[in-house]
Structures are given as C-alpha cells and as structure tokens.
Amino acid sequence: MNDPWWLVLVKAVAIFVFLLLITLFNIVFERKVVGRMQHRKGPTMNGPGGWLQSLADGMKLMFKEDFRPRNADRIVFNLAPFLIAIPAFTVFAMIPFGGEVTLPGGIITRLQLADSEVGVLLILALASIGIYGIVLAGWSSGSTYSLLGGLRSSAQMISYEIAMGLSLVAVFLYAHSMSTANIVEAQAQPLVLPFLGVETPFQQWYWYLLLPSFVIYCISMVGETNRAPFDLPEAEGELVGGFHTEYSGMRFAMFFLAEYINMVTVSALATTLFLGGYLPPFDLPVLNNPWLGPVWFTLKVLSLIFVFIWLRGSLPRLRYDQFMKLGWYWLIPLSVLWLVMVAVLQALTDPNREREPALFVLGVALIVILFLVIMFGGKGSEPDVEDGELDQVDASGRFDAFAGGYPVPPRHGQQLPELTGVLAGETENRGSGGGSASTPPADPASGGRPGPIPASATPDPDEQQEH
Predict the structure, then answer these.
(1) Is 272 part of a structural domain of the chain?
(2) Total domains, the chain
C-alpha cells in the first residue's frame, strides 16, 4: 500500500482511538455480564446505566499514589509496563478492518494500516514481546509473589504459543498465503454443504473447514491472555496479584489496559483467520458495502470477547499441572496430527476436486477424539498412596496429616490418628511439666479424635484477671 503520509497518520490515530474505546466498553461490558451471571446488576452509578464506569476508574488511577518498592530495580520497574502496552497497540497495524474504499479526491486505499506477505508471523512476533514486560515486571519488583507470577506467565506463553502457531499453519496451507488481507479474501467464496453439493448464501469461513484449528486456537488464546480459567499468573489466592502486585497508579493501569487490548488482539486475529474478517455473514450486495466492513469486524470481535467473559463467569481456575498437561499432552499433539492430515490431504488429492467434505469429516473426528480424551482418557487406577503423600505415612502405614508440616485432609479409607501434641497449648504445658488443661480427652468411639472440652477445663476470664 502506497498511502500518503497523512493518510497513514490518520489510520494510526484511528486504530489507537478504536482500541481505547473498545477497551473502555469491554471493561464495563464484562462487569455487567458477570454481574448478570451472578444475579447482580453490575455498575450502575457512573453515567447512563453505569457505562462511564471505565472513565471513572481511569481518573481514579491517574490520581492514585505511584508507589515503588524500596528494593525494586528502578529503571526496569518503570520500563516493564511500556514493554507490555506498546506491542499490544502495534499488533493492530496488520489487522484489516475492511476492503478497498474510495476517499474524497479519488484516493483508493484499504482499511488497514500495513500489510505484509508474512503478516501473521509479524503479529505473532510482536505479540510475543509482551512476555518480556511481564517477566521483567515480576523480576524488578523485588517480591516473591511478583517473580512467581512472571515465571508462570512465561511458561504459560511458551506452552500455548506452540499450539497456537501449529493451529495457524493449516490456515496458511489452505489459503496459500500468510498475508492477513489475502486470507480474508480467500474466505469470500460461497459455502457448499459437504456431500450434498448445495450452495448456500453463507461464505466459506475457515472455522467450518478447519474446525480443529479453530478450537485449538480458541483454547490457546485464552491461555495466552492469562484469562480465566487460565489466569494462573494472577491467581489472587496464591500470588496476590501476580506480576503486577507491587504496581499502582498509572503503571497498574497500563497492565490493565494491555490485558484488555490483548483480548481484542487475539479476538481480531481469530476473526481475520477463521471468521471471515470484515466480510458479511451473507453474500448479499446490500451487505457487501466496503464501508460496512469495520461494523462486521467489530461485531465478530465483540462476540469473541463475550466468550472470554462467559468463561470467566462459569469456569473455575485450573491447577497449574492441569493447565500444563492440557497444553503439552493434548493440544500440541492434536495440532501436529491435524496439520499432518491437512498436508497429506492437499498433497494426495486432485486440486480440481473438492476437499471440503474430507476436511469436514476429519475435523469432526478429531474434535470428538479431543473431547473423549479430555473426559475419559488417562484415568487409570490410582494407587493408595501417591508420590507426594509418602512423607505423610509413618512407619506403621498410618496416615499422618501433619507429617509434611501442613495439614491435609485424609483420603478415602484413611483415618486421622489421635491428635496428640498438635492442639494449641499442649506443647507449652508439656514443656513446663504440667498436663494439658486445654486438650480434650480422646473419644475411642470416634476413632481417636478428641472429644468436647469439659467445662471445668475452660479457664474463667475473671479468675485470670484476679491472678
């Protein structure tokens, strides 16, 4: 594209404004949807219907104290938020918002800032830069919680970046291009029903032809953006706030902004590669107006944003080992298997023959296999004692819940021994040579568990004050 410099500047400003506005909308939209799912109303105070809540939050963060820990690395601590926010904005330079339009003055241009023959690879490369900001934010904060959050995020990014990249190779093979604009134009064909040969008014989008790639990409994009149920780097119960625990004010706002822009980025990439980009859902002349391209594109992106919100409001957080097993044991092998299927099908079949029925059958079969493996696979008989519980069994084979230093509940078939030396106050009384006044006697009928504390063993607060 050979656009004049002022048109390039206008496009860049338009993309920047679009990302800011859609981020402000998504924040309130998420809070309202999650509120409805939890039988609440969500934001209602600021603005009509509460839709200006994002502006109020931004103003609040602007005037908050900009706190920096004493033992933090000052330069890296200040630089990390920019390393996350800047790539989030830059990625959208390769995303097409519409086709060719004619501007006043006869200037013909595409509703896209820049394009390249390897545009999708540039998007993946720019999106990967954000992980450096997360790791540096965790390392420079001087906090164990922040460091663990940064390490988790880097491992998460590496694990799911592989599956995401493999899922996109099938799109490249079918579209014969890595340019985002060419991939969208390749989907502008009428959809023919497999095995029936009936042409429909719908367009041939790749989510239908390459269904396993679309499913794997959707799972990977949730893991890439650290969103629930894959929000392990920011798990509040384990790591407080994760890599941005020590950030406040506008620095924290940049992390928050980058997270929502990354959600829009992966949704926009899914829209471009699998949902036809700016193409309308029906191939009708009324809907094919090039100026309506940004409208169709935005509606598709918002539908994927709703999927993010829906997952957050309905699914619990996965354990770290479950999350890694999902990526390395299931998504990556299935991505490789599906890629081999697509490559072999394209190499062995006649280019003049339709490959859509075979792709549809193979894709559905692979999705069924993925579902069966997740639901029923790998559930062999569990041993009586797992490797992590060997230190919780004494020499006689009895279960000791306090052997590892942290109390754990007994498993099925295990029984807690008598809690001798565990209850508060017994160690102190034993050390002073006296009995345990606060330890209740063990009840034989309850399997050695302590019984209720007798009233005579409870000290009177008035007596303690007199003594």
Answers:
(1) yes
(2) 1
Other C-beta atoms lying within 10 Å of the C-beta of residue 299? 11
Residue 211 covered by a domain: yes
Rounded to whole angstroms, how far apart are CA atoms 114 and 206?
23
What is the tens place of the pLDDT at every residue in 294-325? Answer: 999 999 999 999 999 999 888 888 888 888 88
Q: Do residues 233 and 242 lie in contact, with contact meaning Cβ atoms separated by under 8 Å? A: yes
- Burial grade of 227 (CB within 10 A; 0-12, 13-18, 19 or more): buried
How does strand 190-192 pair with strand 107-110? unpaired
Mean pLDDT of 254-283: 91
The pLDDT of residue 181: 92
| Domain presence at residue 48 | no
Pairwise CA distance, residues 146 & 152, whole Å: 10
**How many of the other CB atoms lie within 10 Å of CB of 341?**
18
Q: DSSP 3-state assignment of 347?
A: helix
Query: CA 27, 30, 32, 34: dihedral to nearest 10 degrees?
Result: -140
pLDDT tens-place string over residues 346-371: 777 656 556 666 676 777 777 787 77
What's the domain range around 197?
70-97+116-376
